[in-house]
Amino acid sequence: MSYSFGRSLRVQIFGQSHGEMIGCVIDGLPAGIKLDTDEISAFMARRAPGRDANSTSRKETDVPRIISGLFDGYTCGAPLTAIIENSDHRSSDYGKLKDTPRPNHADFPARIKYGGFADYRGGGAFSGRLTAPLCFAGAAAIQYLRMCGVDIGAHIYRIGGVTDTPFDPLGVKSETLKEISSKPFPVISAEAEEKMKAVIGKARSDLDSVGGIVECAALGVPAGIGEPRYDGIESAIASICFGIPAVKGVEFGLGFGFGSSFGSDANDQMRVSDGDVVFDSNNCGGVTGGISDGRPIIFRCAFKPTPSIARPQTTADLNEMTTTTLEISGRHDPCVVHRAVPAVESAAALAIADLMLAVNGNRHV
Amino acid sequence: MSYSFGRSLRVQIFGQSHGEMIGCVIDGLPAGIKLDTDEISAFMARRAPGRDANSTSRKETDVPRIISGLFDGYTCGAPLTAIIENSDHRSSDYGKLKDTPRPNHADFPARIKYGGFADYRGGGAFSGRLTAPLCFAGAAAIQYLRMCGVDIGAHIYRIGGVTDTPFDPLGVKSETLKEISSKPFPVISAEAEEKMKAVIGKARSDLDSVGGIVECAALGVPAGIGEPRYDGIESAIASICFGIPAVKGVEFGLGFGFGSSFGSDANDQMRVSDGDVVFDSNNCGGVTGGISDGRPIIFRCAFKPTPSIARPQTTADLNEMTTTTLEISGRHDPCVVHRAVPAVESAAALAIADLMLAVNGNRHV
Amino acid sequence: MSYSFGRSLRVQIFGQSHGEMIGCVIDGLPAGIKLDTDEISAFMARRAPGRDANSTSRKETDVPRIISGLFDGYTCGAPLTAIIENSDHRSSDYGKLKDTPRPNHADFPARIKYGGFADYRGGGAFSGRLTAPLCFAGAAAIQYLRMCGVDIGAHIYRIGGVTDTPFDPLGVKSETLKEISSKPFPVISAEAEEKMKAVIGKARSDLDSVGGIVECAALGVPAGIGEPRYDGIESAIASICFGIPAVKGVEFGLGFGFGSSFGSDANDQMRVSDGDVVFDSNNCGGVTGGISDGRPIIFRCAFKPTPSIARPQTTADLNEMTTTTLEISGRHDPCVVHRAVPAVESAAALAIADLMLAVNGNRHV
Amino acid sequence: MSYSFGRSLRVQIFGQSHGEMIGCVIDGLPAGIKLDTDEISAFMARRAPGRDANSTSRKETDVPRIISGLFDGYTCGAPLTAIIENSDHRSSDYGKLKDTPRPNHADFPARIKYGGFADYRGGGAFSGRLTAPLCFAGAAAIQYLRMCGVDIGAHIYRIGGVTDTPFDPLGVKSETLKEISSKPFPVISAEAEEKMKAVIGKARSDLDSVGGIVECAALGVPAGIGEPRYDGIESAIASICFGIPAVKGVEFGLGFGFGSSFGSDANDQMRVSDGDVVFDSNNCGGVTGGISDGRPIIFRCAFKPTPSIARPQTTADLNEMTTTTLEISGRHDPCVVHRAVPAVESAAALAIADLMLAVNGNRHV
To answer: What is the pLDDT, as a whole number, of residue A59?
Structure first.
């Protein structure tokens, strides 16, 4: 259970890393959205493997084939479904991993949970590969949100301790988001880019991997979106983000920085300017009480380093019940953070679209 | 909508800070749990206001009255419902706040969302007071979990930059959790306690407030609990935690620390010892792929400083649409972090109980 | 689990027949509805016991006490919660039933399901008494729907084989619904009323009980409400109705009569009149494909006879595991159908309000 | 929204009648079920069009292609996904229907709801064709249920007023169900079969269509399955059944017959025989209080006649807003009842599997 999420907009993901196909069904998009499939493909290409020297050499064309939900180019009220072929998988890389769970992977709990029936090839249904259909769904939601005046974009905030220029929490602009999204390596600061790439390169040559943080902004969300308490914007975004493999933390605004802060500094004071309520700062990340307040929504997701590294590691042989040494020989990213950027954007888009539909209703556009 | 959460174990909270009553309904607890109501009351007393010099002087007896779901002292399969009187509220404190939203409170978005119909007294349904019924539900879940071999406990990890001794992520013991829970100010290190109390005292005398971080552990959760992807343990805990007022971040294991880490260090290697799989470390916080792996589950929640401070603050007068100065005169905590500890434990308990019921089924115990 | 239902408007019922209190929480009503509590009480009085010679002599004042969700007389966005005291219960009537399940009651499966922990007094949480909170929720939804132009009303369609004049499926008017709702015994035909009362009277004197059918109409539902397939109007209404004790069938329009019909007769042909699409008939009961089409929504619910009859019945003694004779001595209705009328109206109102909120959004009114 | 249903076992249907593909995702089947795909295909063939003289001449091979969720022949915990090509559709048949809604079809409300963006070809996503993926899901659930000791089968109870021998509500046997399922025209009585076929034949030659009723039995469901009130067995089965196109009524046991019955006759008395509780009758259809009691679960679904008939019908031209005459020329069944039998079985299987998983948990088998 639970390859699905959402209430007013329901997303169902399916597939395994080395199965025949992966894909998703999106149920609840209003009818009448003219979907730009080229834009969807371009969005998905941002997370596809094999695009540059910083990624795995596994290549997937990752062209989604839309098999339902579109009619004459518009969403028609039926579930929007896309399938993606797993064209370039090499299962032989993984056969020997069946009994030797990889550290920090889901291999071990999956084996316990599914009693040996889990598809262990390439992480099976736990693989990062299933962020491809998430990105398909996100790309569709982003097009819907744009019709509602909402823009979403993210950048690499940190990799291996190197930090990019953060978003201006109050003043971040749509143009900035657009510009970043066009970069193969989405950072704001050229200097940070250089350092981050050096860190990744060193990790690669060290047969190591490196973790990072993605920062995401949603602009134009009107005040009043989000339901109180347990269906607030923060809960909705966080619960999808934690479904992206490797995510281990989610914070809004100052986030964990609040742990060292005082109310006199942290409170975002308000005033009236030109007949509008404006804020002096945006420490809250655009959300109070779970509900948007008109400011940019700003959050960050922490990613652990790619677990699959080529160095010898100690693990258990679950068949022999002995300690053994594992050497992983498949193709693996030394860093997934740059490829995870559109997945985080997708999580934000799907959460916000779901909550906007609850407030605005699901009539055709 | 959405004062409720959970799938196999559904919790519905209700009430407003200055309404007649608050309470909750818990639907899905197995029949046959012998509930110790004294233990529930003791648990709730840990978050009740007015217990010590570090808290608001508002006093609520907070005695939950169980009106359904118990029969002869055991859960009977019917929803467990508790109501709590709001005995000591002073709404006159809040009348003047109707048109002047307090910075970092939900006042402003609530007014937009509900068009002036929201109960603004004391934050209405957005108030921290509604963590009382959450703690009732959590206390019941904790008793159920104990029957399943699971223990849950939390401590103050940080207040105003002062950090307590962290939990030993691999070796934390139930006895430690129990001992901490008996303290009025739940920290591990006496030195940290002294410093934290000094920070809170200074914030009080400065008419200021201070934020912090709570760290929580769940011990004894067997491997295989949690559903993959979007209903994993991390998603479930995070989405409830973000429903606790003032929570702005949730992280598991190393969390945001992963952003500066390398796989060679961060990977938790495994071995076989005495016929069992054991781990060398617990950077993942006991969860991989959303699923428990038998290690302690460790996570932290960041809390922003209490927004209500007595210092003059700038805000908008939404009636006059002018900038104005706000001076909040009600009784308010300079710090809620120590009182939030049982709320975080409750979020963990309810999320884990829900996911255990999905795996184990809901038969009577 | 599952004393709750609804997606955009979530209703959570609680309580047991002979527990301390029963009640409900309604989460998702838009803010700004001016609730007429006298009207709610009058609505609930229609299902209350002890009103006339046709009912049980158990008397409950059934005055709901609203403890959250209302502020200055208007819904405020917080969950609307009502509690109702169980003032006049006599548990001693039921003690001896613990081990001897009553035929056609939930006693037997409840004992199996809850392993002897179920509250067996008066049917516990399975009792018809829990239609009181359902009617509270329904009464609130009816007031919301009236603001949307929707009127709902029902009548006794059949009791013990005596049939009332059916609703005119195409021409039924709001005034008719209002008039029926003011009758203590809600039928259209005075002749049918007399015969039905005679049947009930005979059942009473025979120590027997009698079943029946309720017919319900919803007028003014605009075309386009309801989601396709599994969240259509029919699915939503039926799943709530089957949660009313004793309901064993639900049908829309011609319903089971379609089993003997031909398309040439059954098809509701359309034409254009005065610029509007009109139908020549309403065999479909106002719903096609799960979606409203602007016609009156018409459905019927079948109720089995009250299971509790005073005649000696054969049952099992589950303690001794012997066959025994049961004589039920409590106060019981020979017929619940007239008291069930507002419960059916409530099911319709809550289902339709839920589906209208999905289409229209949940903004304050 | 709402091409999905289920809580512990979630089914998501997708596709349009004349789109590229239809299919479904089933999330929540335990790992370790050895799926017999030939049996699935044979089950689906029972509802496929074009098999005999009683059906539409449209032919679809309807071979489901499983693209995820199976590994080495066993369910692996990942969502089970099947896609089915729409190989033999002739959209030209439908083009002219765009503006002229067919009586008793969803055409009219769909046009209102989706504002002209709905895929009108062949009923789009409202088509009976989408019972093919429902049957795929049902066939998988049936194999799971068989491992749990549960057998499900249905027969045509009535067509055009001709009634088959009903199931013996207490004594119906698995062998009988199996035997019926092997018949192309699933009835018990050869005499009824002959008469029903004559009725269908006459409807065909009259350019008419005919409605009917399907009766379904689930054997071997242990007592205690189903959640009380709004997630009972009746609610769960009914809400899926009403998602099958043309279903207009659902009843359990005596169903609407209860409307003319008395408690003294209708109550199913119990006794103890050979150490077991046995019932004297099964008027309740195996469910009391929403919960199974160990008897066969018996219910019936009423189907309206196929709306598409070749006779001239009056309808609206929604473009010209004039009254017009419609002549439908596509290939259409004069009766869908016999093809609907596996769809009803699927609804029962999926509802019962979902509720059994809630009680028993979702561990691998």
So the answer is: 57
| Per-residue confidence band for D216, with pLDDT thresholds at 50, 70 and 90 | very high
Give me the sign of the Cα torsion angle D18, D21, D26, D32. positive
Classify the complex by whether its ipTM is higher than 0.90, answering yes or no: yes
For C230-250, the pLDDT digits (tens) are: 999 999 999 999 999 999 999
Residue of B nearest to C121 (CA): B71
Subunits close to C (at least 3 CB pairs below 8 A): A, B, D
Distance CA C290, CA C288 (A): 5
Strands (E), A224-265: 247-252
Q: For residue B73, what pLDDT is reported?
A: 96
Q: What is the pLDDT of residue C308?
A: 92
* pTM for the full predicted model: 0.97
Task: State how far the Cα of B309 lies from the Cα of B161, in Å rounded to an integer.
Answer: 19
Question: What is the DSSP code string of A101-163?
Answer: PPTTSSHHHHHHHHTT-S--GGGGGGSGGGHHHHHHHHHHHHHHHHHTT-EEEEEEEEETTEE
For the cut 90, the answer to whether the pLDDT of residue D1 exceeds it is no
Q: Which of B21, B27, B113 sits opposite C1 (nearest CB)?
A: B27
pLDDT, mean over chain C: 94
CATH number of the domain at B8-360, please? 3.60.150.10
Report how far residue B212's alpha carbon sits from residue D170's, in angstroms, rounded to the nearest whole number.
64
Task: Compute the average pLDDT of residues D137-158.
Answer: 98
Whole-Å CA distances, A365 to A15, A77, B233, C188, D115: 31, 11, 36, 44, 8
Query: Would you say residue C344 has pLDDT above 60?
Result: yes
Residue (of C281, C348, C340) closest to C142 by Cα position = C348
Q: And the tokens for C253?
A: 């329009």
Residue D23 pairs in a beta bridge with D14, D83
User: Is the CB of B2 less than 8 angstroms away from the CB of A285?
Assistant: no
Residues of C whose CB is below 8 A from A228: 77-78
Indicate which of D291, D360, D364, D365 best probes the interface with B, i.e. most B CBs within 10 Å of its own CB.
D360
Residues C282, C169 contacting (CB under 8 angstroms): yes
Q: Smallest Cα–Cα separation from D264: which of C202, C129, C156?
A: C202
Q: Which residues of chain A register pLDDT less than 70? A: 1, 50-61, 88-96, 330-331
Residue C68 has pLDDT above 70, yes or no: yes
pLDDT attached to residue C12: 98
How confident is the prediction for chain B on average, in pLDDT? 94
Residue among B112, B224, B256 minimizing CB distance to A112:
B224
Give the pair of three-digit tokens for residue D48.
Answer: 């496929």
Residue of D nearest to A8 (CA): D1
Question: For chain A, percent helix, then strand, then coil, each to nearest 5?
Answer: 35, 25, 45
Q: Which residue's structure tokens are 């002979």?
A: C18
Residue of chain B nearest D8, judged by CA positions:
B358
Angle at which helix C233-241 crosses helix D233-241, to 10 degrees, equals 170
Output the average pLDDT for chain D: 94
For chain B, the domains span 8-360
Secondary structure class of C25 (helix, strand, coil): strand
Beta bridge partners of B324: B315
DSSP state for residue A50 in the 8-state scheme: T
Q: Which of A148, A74, A190, A183 is nearest to A361 (CA)?
A: A148
> For chain A, what's the residue count?
365
Mean local confidence (pLDDT), C164-183: 97
Closest by Cβ to A2, choosing from B228, B256, B300: B228
Alpha-carbon span C123 to C101, nearest angstrom? 10
User: CB of B44 within 8 A of CB of B147?
Assistant: no
pLDDT at D96: 67
Subunits with at least 3 CB pairs below 8 A relative to chain A? Answer: B, C, D
